[in-house]
Amino acid sequence: MMAKNTICLWYDRDALQAANFYASVFPDSAVGAVHLAPADYPSGKAGDVLTVEFTVCGVACIGLNGGDTFHHSEAFSFQIATDDQAETDRYWNAIVDNGGMASACGWCKDRWGLSWQITPRVLTEAMAQGGEVAQRAFQAMMTMQKIDVATITAAVAGA
Fold first, then answer.
1. Going residue by residue through the chain (159 aa), what tens digit of pLDDT does each one get?
2. HEC readout, the chain
3. Which residues lie below 8 Å from residue 100, measured CB to CB, with a gap of 6+?
4. Which of 21, 28, 37, 51 is least enclosed by beta carbons within 10 angstroms?
5. What's the whole-model pTM score?
Protein backbone atom coordinates (compact mmCIF):
# COMPACT_ATOMS: atom_id res chain seq x y z
CA MET A 1 0.00 0.00 0.00
CA MET A 2 1.34 3.41 -0.95
CA ALA A 3 2.13 5.84 1.88
CA LYS A 4 -0.25 8.74 2.52
CA ASN A 5 2.57 11.21 1.78
CA THR A 6 5.21 10.32 -0.78
CA ILE A 7 8.09 12.39 -2.10
CA CYS A 8 7.97 12.46 -5.89
CA LEU A 9 11.36 12.92 -7.56
CA TRP A 10 11.57 13.76 -11.26
CA TYR A 11 14.21 12.02 -13.36
CA ASP A 12 15.04 12.26 -17.02
CA ARG A 13 14.80 8.52 -17.58
CA ASP A 14 16.89 6.92 -14.84
CA ALA A 15 14.45 6.62 -11.91
CA LEU A 16 14.95 2.86 -11.63
CA GLN A 17 18.76 3.15 -11.70
CA ALA A 18 18.64 5.90 -9.07
CA ALA A 19 16.28 3.89 -6.83
CA ASN A 20 18.51 0.81 -7.11
CA PHE A 21 21.56 2.92 -6.20
CA TYR A 22 19.88 4.46 -3.14
CA ALA A 23 18.69 1.03 -1.99
CA SER A 24 22.24 -0.32 -2.30
CA VAL A 25 23.76 2.52 -0.26
CA PHE A 26 21.36 3.48 2.52
CA PRO A 27 19.86 1.31 5.28
CA ASP A 28 16.10 0.83 5.47
CA SER A 29 15.90 1.50 1.73
CA ALA A 30 14.32 -0.64 -0.96
CA VAL A 31 12.92 -0.62 -4.46
CA GLY A 32 9.24 -1.49 -4.71
CA ALA A 33 6.84 -1.53 -7.61
CA VAL A 34 7.96 -0.50 -11.07
CA HIS A 35 5.17 0.85 -13.30
CA LEU A 36 5.43 0.91 -17.06
CA ALA A 37 3.86 3.58 -19.25
CA PRO A 38 0.55 2.33 -20.62
CA ALA A 39 0.92 4.49 -23.73
CA ASP A 40 3.39 6.79 -25.46
CA TYR A 41 4.00 10.08 -23.65
CA PRO A 42 6.08 13.20 -24.46
CA SER A 43 9.37 11.78 -23.15
CA GLY A 44 8.84 8.05 -23.63
CA LYS A 45 7.08 5.13 -25.20
CA ALA A 46 4.51 2.63 -24.05
CA GLY A 47 6.28 -0.02 -21.98
CA ASP A 48 9.06 2.30 -20.74
CA VAL A 49 9.55 2.59 -16.98
CA LEU A 50 7.31 5.49 -15.98
CA THR A 51 7.44 5.38 -12.17
CA VAL A 52 9.33 3.50 -9.48
CA GLU A 53 8.23 3.21 -5.86
CA PHE A 54 11.14 3.17 -3.40
CA THR A 55 12.19 4.13 0.10
CA VAL A 56 15.31 5.94 1.26
CA CYS A 57 16.05 5.43 4.96
CA GLY A 58 12.39 4.62 5.50
CA VAL A 59 11.08 7.67 3.59
CA ALA A 60 8.56 6.80 0.88
CA CYS A 61 9.48 8.08 -2.56
CA ILE A 62 8.37 7.68 -6.12
CA GLY A 63 10.67 8.30 -9.06
CA LEU A 64 9.02 9.68 -12.18
CA ASN A 65 10.73 9.42 -15.55
CA GLY A 66 9.38 12.68 -16.91
CA GLY A 67 12.09 13.70 -19.37
CA ASP A 68 14.43 16.66 -19.27
CA THR A 69 11.81 19.37 -18.62
CA PHE A 70 12.58 19.80 -14.90
CA HIS A 71 15.82 19.43 -12.95
CA HIS A 72 16.75 18.92 -9.31
CA SER A 73 18.05 21.86 -7.29
CA GLU A 74 19.41 22.48 -3.81
CA ALA A 75 15.92 23.65 -2.84
CA PHE A 76 15.29 19.97 -2.04
CA SER A 77 17.76 17.63 -0.39
CA PHE A 78 17.85 14.47 1.66
CA GLN A 79 19.59 14.98 5.00
CA ILE A 80 21.18 11.77 6.23
CA ALA A 81 22.25 11.69 9.90
CA THR A 82 25.44 9.74 10.56
CA ASP A 83 26.88 8.40 13.80
CA ASP A 84 30.61 8.50 13.05
CA GLN A 85 33.25 9.26 10.44
CA ALA A 86 33.09 5.79 8.89
CA GLU A 87 29.37 6.13 8.19
CA THR A 88 29.84 9.70 6.94
CA ASP A 89 32.61 8.56 4.60
CA ARG A 90 30.63 5.56 3.34
CA TYR A 91 27.59 7.60 2.24
CA TRP A 92 29.53 10.62 0.99
CA ASN A 93 31.96 8.51 -1.01
CA ALA A 94 29.19 6.35 -2.46
CA ILE A 95 27.45 9.44 -3.82
CA VAL A 96 30.50 11.40 -4.97
CA ASP A 97 32.42 8.40 -6.35
CA ASN A 98 29.38 7.25 -8.38
CA GLY A 99 29.39 10.24 -10.70
CA GLY A 100 28.27 12.78 -8.10
CA MET A 101 30.00 15.94 -6.97
CA ALA A 102 31.15 17.39 -3.68
CA SER A 103 29.84 20.70 -2.45
CA ALA A 104 30.29 22.60 0.83
CA CYS A 105 29.29 22.04 4.46
CA GLY A 106 28.39 18.36 4.11
CA TRP A 107 26.39 18.76 0.90
CA CYS A 108 26.93 16.74 -2.26
CA LYS A 109 24.96 15.85 -5.38
CA ASP A 110 24.40 12.44 -6.85
CA ARG A 111 24.87 11.76 -10.55
CA TRP A 112 21.20 12.57 -11.19
CA GLY A 113 21.57 16.04 -9.64
CA LEU A 114 19.75 15.27 -6.37
CA SER A 115 21.27 17.02 -3.35
CA TRP A 116 22.25 15.19 -0.17
CA GLN A 117 23.39 16.51 3.20
CA ILE A 118 25.55 13.91 4.92
CA THR A 119 25.43 15.27 8.46
CA PRO A 120 27.15 13.72 11.48
CA ARG A 121 24.98 13.87 14.61
CA VAL A 122 27.85 15.55 16.49
CA LEU A 123 27.37 18.60 14.24
CA THR A 124 23.60 18.67 14.63
CA GLU A 125 23.91 18.31 18.41
CA ALA A 126 26.51 21.10 18.59
CA MET A 127 24.28 23.44 16.60
CA ALA A 128 21.36 22.63 18.90
CA GLN A 129 23.41 23.65 21.95
CA GLY A 130 23.61 27.20 20.67
CA GLY A 131 26.00 29.82 21.98
CA GLU A 132 29.76 29.47 21.67
CA VAL A 133 29.61 25.71 21.05
CA ALA A 134 27.36 26.19 18.03
CA GLN A 135 29.49 29.08 16.81
CA ARG A 136 32.70 27.03 16.96
CA ALA A 137 31.09 24.02 15.27
CA PHE A 138 29.58 26.25 12.60
CA GLN A 139 32.87 28.00 11.87
CA ALA A 140 34.63 24.63 11.56
CA MET A 141 31.90 23.29 9.26
CA MET A 142 32.16 26.33 6.98
CA THR A 143 35.69 25.26 5.99
CA MET A 144 34.66 21.74 4.93
CA GLN A 145 33.18 19.84 2.05
CA LYS A 146 32.67 16.40 3.65
CA ILE A 147 32.24 16.87 7.39
CA ASP A 148 35.22 15.80 9.49
CA VAL A 149 33.87 14.44 12.77
CA ALA A 150 37.16 14.84 14.67
CA THR A 151 37.43 18.50 13.71
CA ILE A 152 33.82 19.17 14.76
CA THR A 153 34.40 17.30 18.03
CA ALA A 154 37.51 19.39 18.71
CA ALA A 155 35.61 22.59 17.92
CA VAL A 156 32.84 21.61 20.33
CA ALA A 157 35.45 20.99 23.04
CA GLY A 158 36.99 24.39 22.36
CA ALA A 159 40.27 22.97 21.13
1. 667 899 999 999 999 999 999 999 999 999 999 999 999 999 999 999 999 999 999 999 999 999 999 999 999 999 999 999 999 999 999 999 999 999 999 999 999 999 999 999 999 999 999 999 999 999 999 999 999 999 999 999 998
2. CCCCCCEEEEECCCHHHHHHHHHHHCCCCEEEEEEECCCCECCECCCCEEEEEEEECCEEEEEEECCCCCCCCCCCEEEEEECCHHHHHHHHHHHHHCCCEECCCCEEECCCCCEEEEEEHHHHHHHHHCHHHHHHHHHHHCCCCCCCHHHHHHHHHCC
3. 108, 109, 110, 111
4. 28
5. 0.94
